[in-house]
Amino acid sequence: MYFKHFRMRIKKDIDSCRTCIYRQMLFGDLDDFEYKLINKARTERFYRKGEVIKNQGEKVDSFLYLRKGLVKLFKTDKRGKEKILSINKPGDFVNLLNIFSKTNYKYSIEAIEDTLVCDVDLEVLEHVICTNGDFAMRVLNRMSKISDEIIENRFEQAQKQLKGRVATILLFFADDIYHSLKFDLPITRREIGELISMTTENTIRTFSEFKRDKLINIKTKTIIILDKERLKIIAKSG
Amino acid sequence: MYFKHFRMRIKKDIDSCRTCIYRQMLFGDLDDFEYKLINKARTERFYRKGEVIKNQGEKVDSFLYLRKGLVKLFKTDKRGKEKILSINKPGDFVNLLNIFSKTNYKYSIEAIEDTLVCDVDLEVLEHVICTNGDFAMRVLNRMSKISDEIIENRFEQAQKQLKGRVATILLFFADDIYHSLKFDLPITRREIGELISMTTENTIRTFSEFKRDKLINIKTKTIIILDKERLKIIAKSG
DNA sequence: CGCGGCTTTGATGTTCATCAAGTAAAGTGG
DNA sequence: CCACTTTACTTGATGAACATCAAAGCCGCG
Hints:
The structure is a homodimer. The first copy, chain A, has 2 domains: 2-153, Jelly Rolls, CATH 2.60.120.10; 160-237, Arc Repressor Mutant, subunit A. Chain A is elongated and about 60 Å long. The longest helix of chain A has 27 residues, at 133-159. In chain A, helix 4 (122-131) crosses helix 5 and helix 6 (162-177) crosses helix 9. By secondary structure, chain A is of the alpha+beta class. Chain A has helices at 14-18, 21-27, 32-40, 122-131, 133-159, 162-177, 189-196, 200-212, 228-237, and strands at 10-11, 42-47, 52-54, 62-68, 71-76, 82-88, 108-111, 115-121, 182-184, 216-219, 222-225. In chain A, the strands form 3 sheets. Chain A has a 4-stranded antiparallel beta sheet with strand order 1-2-8-4. Helix content of chain A is 44%, strand content 22%. The first copy, chain A, is built from 9 helices and 11 strands. At the A-B interface, helix 4 and helix 5 of A face helix 4 and helix 5 of B. Chain B binds a DNA duplex through residues 1-2, 161-162, 188-190, 198-202, 204-205, 207-208, 220.
């Protein structure tokens, strides 16, 4: 694979963290001493598209948050088929829900675009949680919100059939990830299928159908949303 | 409904809490002062089968843990159809994953057997979390574990088809809930369908098929598992 | 330039939901 | 306690949604 020649860069750039808007969300209210502790325990890592960040089975020993790029969380079943659990974007606390269970990763994490991740040593994070109750509450609050979202999302998606799910994922990329009606898909059709629980063939068929109906335009990886309103209706009603 | 004539009992029996094995799991290491705080904020509530404990949309203002009985968490979609998210048994921290998000219940909770619930005022719980970092860590650990289980469960169930899911739910009742090969179903066939995402009719059909194949015996609500090994194989392979 | 993975389309088959219709059981009211 | 109503349960027939299988073109890359 092409990224094998690439040497992973690890940065320790305190200034880039001080100005990081994502940091503010969780670490914003820490006092100077705690902040320095976290910052010393923090590593900034860069991954090329396609690189694996964590492997299913690895020990969970750090807290990850995504600064730039895009990652997918996925699991492999016995037959070797993958299923994508979620796609995370900048600002997401990728593994927050699972880091405190003292077990190994139950899923893998892979960069699907060139990605910058902040990695905070878990022991240090736990130390700060133990000594700063308000910070602990913020972590709990964040975890609950992530959990709320997952429950709500699953519930919504479960009622939909294929067209609705494809429409939803297209709007997800357009609105939540790229903030544009035109974007390049960061994943293959097979992966989209793995994400919304359908086969590659039916993913493609639905794409073709949307193109026929002038909802979108497709040129291999490039998608242009032509009729967002109708796509929204399909995404909602199923 | 028959329970309308029933007056809800609220108890404040400190001794029953001191000896409560479930309490130990989370509140075991609190010091005397904190323990008394929690205990004062605690209410023990009894619900008859069929009673609603929390309604979708209600404010989340307490932490619930189940001492006796059985509850279901469910959501209603636009068309009025219900979907059961999970069934909780004694020892489960029913709403732990969601209580810190400062929003309202995204699901309803209903007793599906006569049920005893401990209800701890959320503000007091949060106070103790803020002042006791080790306790905060135990809460975080518990949340992560619940989350791990949900992810794992969903992943397993998603690969299975109807027979596998029905077999799984039968083993769940036999092994995890009643610890017996013979038990009375606490929910209707429709509800089983809502729990494993299939129609009432197909739930029944699968039951009938299992009966024909001498895997189980059914007499309305009463189930006897005749061939657990074969049932396990079906549950696993799908 | 040829190999392997991605993409595409069509044909076929399976799984499951929906519809219909009837029986059994359980709650309700006189 | 019995008629009445409602809800739960059951089975069969039909059709829709989706997976699977097959085959071919495309594209990047060694």
